[in-house]
Amino acid sequence: MIKSIKNINFFKPPFWEDRDPNLEQKESLFDYRKLWIGVIAIISLVASVPLFVLTFLNLSIYEKAIQAEVEYPLIRLISNTKNSISFFLEERKCALKFIVENNSFAKLSKQDELGKIYTDFQKAFGGIVDLGIINSKGTQTVYVGPYNLKGKNYENQEWYKEVILKEYYVSDIFLGYRNMPHFIIAIKKMLPNGDFFILRSTIDTNKFNQIISGLETDSTSDAFILNEKNILQTDSKFFGKVLSSFPIELPKCKAVKRICEITDHNGLKWLLGYTRIPNSPFIFALVKKPLVLRSGLNSLKKETFYVLGFSLIIVLGVVIFISTSLVTKIYYADMRRLALLHKAEHSNKLASIGRLAAGVAHEINNPLAIINEKAGLMKDLFIYSKKYQHDKKLLDLVESILKQVERCREITHRLLGFARHVDVKMEEVDLESLIKEVLSFLHKEAEYRGIDVKIIKKHTIPLIKSDRGKLQQIFLNIINNAFAAVSKGGHIIIALESPKQNIVRISITDDGIGIPKENLKKIFEPFFSTKQDKGGTGLGLSITYGLVKKLKGDISVKSEVGKGTTFTISLPVNP
Question: According to its UniProt record, which reaction does this protein catalyse (predicted)?
């Protein structure tokens, strides 16, 4: 009926075929085709979702790694260049501030003295084109440099207005009177009489070009300086000459370095890194074509999706294999269940036949009693009759009749005992006496194996109203199990107590092998047995559980492997 699991046909599982025709009247637990498809779908989903997540996570991490590989040199270059430009400006600012603080206005107003300071400045620092003193009316009163700017008035110049407000100012690149791109650093100094003057220096913009040209950049990169109005302050390889407008608007940012992707007016994408130069209007920018990033990432995506597809094929194959094996085992277990139900039905029929036989035995008991009485009367008549009292043959025949009647009586009593307790019959029961009666059946075994059985009463135990026969069967089953669990010379303690007014509790404790923790939840299930190798059917405790519940009681078990087991039965005094 049930095929071997080794013969599973994974292309056409056994549950795809019709079931055993002998079991067709029983209902299966599942629609195995739907179960199989459902299991495959669920396991495939559970297995593939992490695979997809890991794949896209891996792509994301790799993309970030490639991006970092491209961006890190840019960030480092931007940071170093920012420091170089910032140091260049700060150095000249501090030098000019030193000149203002350590020289009087009268001294600085002398052409020779300012010329000497200019010469010393160039020797010490360099990078300036000229020096000039501008009074509070905006007129340049003293000038040292290559241009004829003495007497020029800057009152309406933007940088002049700014330096009056801030006392220190770095301008962006502009043309001015000389019509040449340049920028200035100006420092305002207050005089004791409340007036002020400004020391103004024009900075050599070639220094910016020298710093930028010294950067290690490839043919796909371009470095330049912008101002806040997006005007180029130095020449750009890709975007034009100084004072040209930069065609791409920079994203709004704070004075920190950052890398982002931008698109120019031709639709070309660029990697842009930029940072503000502190205490100045300048922004240093570095752009790079992101060709390497795109090509490497596209190649990786293609390879990753190939691996993902191959992995999904393997996962699906394994899922089908496992699902088929799992559902087939469930199918065979269901077939075994149906077979057991078939056997149980057969056993039920046998029980009915037994009850019928018991009824017949009861009917036979009446004529047997008459035969027994009549045969006994005949024996008495023969014994007291002088004619037959010495007829041994006749007396032996009567004795044979009596023996056979006794034999029939024993047989009928056994049949009656089989069916006596089918229905619950309530009567007053002394539990201690009943347990002793059950133990009398096991007295010889206990004596032979040296098993010590004790009955302990913790309180006065009241008589309970229950079914005597069912109680006998309950205690016989549990005590039998205790005998089977203990070894030679073991101990069994039966404790009786009445913890509550209407409750009697019986605990049967042995010091046997114990029950594993994982089996405790299944101990009362039908067909579960820890003694299958000894011929156990797995029905004893299941029947016991049902009988206790029928008597409106409760049963529980505690056990520890190697220490023993305790079954506790609680019964109502008056159910």
Answer: ATP + protein L-histidine = ADP + protein N-phospho-L-histidine
